[in-house]
Please model this.
Amino acid sequence: MGKIKIHSNNLLLDYYELTMCYSYFINKKHHEQCVFDVFFREIPYSGGYAIFCGLEDIVNYVTNLKFSIEEINFLRGRYQFSSDFLEYLAKWRFKGDIYSFKEGSVIFPNEPIIIVKGNLFDCQIIETYLLTIFNHQSLIATKASRIVNAAIGRGVMEFGARRAHGSEAAIKGARAAYICGVIGTSNVIGDYLYNIPALGTMAHSYVMTFDSEYEAFKHYALSYPNNTTLLVDTYNTLKSGVPNAIKIHNEVLKPLGYSLKGIRIDSGDLAYLSTKARQLLDSAGLFDTKITVSNSLDEYLITSLISEGAKIDAFGVGEKLITGGGQSIFGGVYKITAREINKILVPTIKLSDNPSKTTLPGFKKVYRFYDLDHKAIADLICLNDEQIDHTKPYLLFDPVYTYKQKEVINYKIELKTIKIIEKGKVIIDLPTITQIKEHCQNELNSMWSEIKRLYNPHNYYVDLSNPLYELLQSMINKLRV
Model:
């Protein structure tokens, strides 16, 4: 039997990162400066916005990345890299700069969410892990935000660990969901690592291990008299489950001075069952007993249930949240936008027969424009050395349909791409998960409801500054054949 390898994420690289870095090294290009952008091209789920998540993990990875002796020896065994290169790799540490949106920010297509500035080696070697984290956590965060928004103030719990695409996806998915408004998780390690409230009561198997549903409910209530929520659909929700739950309140909890906290329905016609269950509970005087439902929920089904008048207080959402249900990928990419030529940082561009895949050149930054009520007007991508005088009117224009213009006055601006890492060192205090969650809510509050709606959302404006637009057009014209 082979020895099980205990691994770090250091070698979570696409092999071409190593082959390119080796070629840079032997051609003495590895110290040349460059800039890479992380961005995405389309909003998932045909939605109006996305949420950026995963920055904390990216920062921790980049600042702690160090190849071990065992990992270097493994690469040596590939017989493709010189000893000089492997010695360099063994001593290498990331020394570049990283600019980024804050974690939990609302983001839009084609704007640089993360900007990496450093030498070719620094920028190239971190690509795969950076995209892995950005794509997964931003997808789950976006899905969670849509689900929470659909619930219109009702509690949403993340119940998807057992359906996640691996243990890491379960853990980081719970974190991303919590940042976007989920009130708790079934995943205990989420509570242990991030203080996300761990929530849960019983499964159908618990009920089935007793001689009767009533006996199961009774023993559970005696175990947790101050927090009794009963799963009522093991046999028959309305004829057995809810009546037995009411009996438990009257015969077990009430004599002890407690009340039935809630019931959960996990199957069947949730709109019908919740409405009838509410009638039964209210008839018994249990007006404060909450009804939670689960079973393959997503934002669309939740919206439908609420529109039907279902009497539901909270939702447990599993696989369609933790797997990003309905969308397999987020679509983030990592593209070079500037490189050093004769010790000067020169813009680069990738052209494509598909216009949407043409990249924006240069070392850039992103501003968000707000009106005086702090509602977002548009994002502006501009060159890094540009300055905007917010005391003067500013002309925004669509980068494709340039005749679509808007002069904004009485506005505020916020720089979204702030420096996080300088010369390999973190230069800000990383926020707590509670602070990230608060930032996410503030970001969503700044967006118009038309952007957040589930169907036919408004297209938010992401515009280019005039200098960046002129640079883009000049490079296209120069390279066009």
